[in-house]
Amino acid sequence: MTTKLDQLHAMLDSMDEYERYRLLCMAEIEESRRENGGVPIIECERTESGLAFDCPYCEVRHVHSLPDDAGGHRLAHCKPGSPLHDGGYVLVPIEGTLPRGPQKPRRRGRKAQ
Ligand SMILES: [Zn+2]
Questions:
Q1: Distance (Å, whole) CA 45 – CA 51
Q2: 18 alpha carbon – ligand 1 mean position (Å)
Q3: How far is residue 67's CA from residue 84's CA, in Å, rounded to a whole number?
Q4: Chain-centre distance of CA 56, in angstroms?
Q5: How far is the CA of 47 from the centre of ligand 1 (A)?
Q6: How deeply is 40 buried, as exposed, middle or buried, from its count of CB atoms within 10 A (0-12, 13-18, 19+)?
Q7: pLDDT tens, 3-40?
Q8: Of 10, 60, 89, 109, most Cβ neighbours within 10 A?
């Protein structure tokens, strides 16, 4: 008999490393969303252009421009369909840089959103 857990393992085995990493990033945000009334707390880093984090839903880097680099609640830069699109997120700047999140391969040299 195949259990739900077996199915989950089979699904994870069939995914490549990128998809597994993306799933993990989304699971972390989902947990934060549940714990914080639907608005997740997301760590971001300070860059020359503003507060930045790599969004696993959109697979791009979202940058919230300066001058206010103190963090706090922001309207999402996510595309429609992302679970963060409607409620936004609370950005918490960290010291230093974050590990890179899932990024879609660039096709037409578009800049991060
Ligand atoms: Zn997004």
A1: 6
A2: 17
A3: 23
A4: 4
A5: 18
A6: buried
A7: 999 988 888 888 888 888 899 999 999 999 999 999 99
A8: 89
